[in-house]
Amino acid sequence: xxxxxxxxxxxxxxxxxxxxxxxxxxxxxxxxxxxxxxxxxxxxxxxxxxxxxxxxxxxxxxxxxxxxxxxxxxxxxxxxxxxxxxxxxxxxxxxxxxxxxxxxxxxxxxxxxxxxxxxxxxxxxxxxxxxxxxxxxxxxxxxxxxxxxxxxxxxxxxxxxxxxxxxxxxxxxxxxxxxxxxxxxxxxxxxxxxxxxxxxxxxxxxxxxxxxxxxxxxxxxxxxxxxxxxxxxxxxxxxxxxxxxxxxxxxxxxxxxxxxxxxxxxxxxxxxxxxxxxxxxxxxxxxxxxxxxxxxxxxxxxxxxxxxxxxxxxxxxxxxxxxxxxxxxxxxxxxxxxxxxxx
Length: 343
Prior knowledge:
Blueprint: H1 17-52, H2 75-84, E1 157-159, E2 166-168, H3 182-194, H4 199-210, H5 216-243, E3 246-256, E4 259-267, E5 272-277, H6 282-289, E6 296-299, E7 313-315, H7 317-328, H8 332-342
Parallel strand pairs: 3-6, 6-7
Antiparallel strand pairs: 1-2, 3-4, 4-5
Helix pairs in contact: 3-5, 7-8
């Protein structure tokens, strides 16, 4: 039965009993459909409102995303606010503010002492007596002149007096494939890996500050040599993770050669191991821990760790607290449950 809601409502007294029953059945079905639809729309509205209220305190969003939720003011807005209602405070530290100062290093760590003596005579004409037991201390930090230590290996040749076989000295094996010593290689790799400086900038840095001109290829080969040298140490660290009693695991997005990959981190009490993998699946977690892992895993609720027995898996409390805060932000009974979970 179709209804024209622009017309007056039909009157039951003008209908036969069969027509009246059909009308009641139709209205009941319409009411049921609309009730289901209203419930669905209300749920969608609640979900959308909850998403709008998400921030770094009640979700896995980074703190930087809080700017969009009105939690913080941008510098431009703060400046506009200050111009409209300028602060009465003066610039700098305010009265009562506890200042901070740098502690002086002990004398045994000082490389050079320079004694500053006051003038020998006073303006009144009297002699100034200097107390050698009292002096103020002021320390200056300066970088030494950086100049590379250049070692030249001179490889001599000789010949056997008995058989005439020639013999030539060989370089120590650690210097065969490169022009840098261990400390120089460590500097290059730290600049590249830890500080994320490009090879071209490292090339310029070496030339400008150290006085060493090298090619980009040499820098790349140096990275490869250090990586090979660290291979055994990295493997030992990975083996330690598989036998540790407690391991914290997490993963985050990481671009690799323009492709979306994942940075996996495993943390123990003494070792932290990072891995870059193109997958976020459970197979990587099993690679990190080993399928025979018997320790306790601390992680979020990501499904890649579901293969770990629940008795050996500790959920991250920080994640739980964020979830409880989200629940507490809801209305009604759910919000009450969230408050109880938090406190």
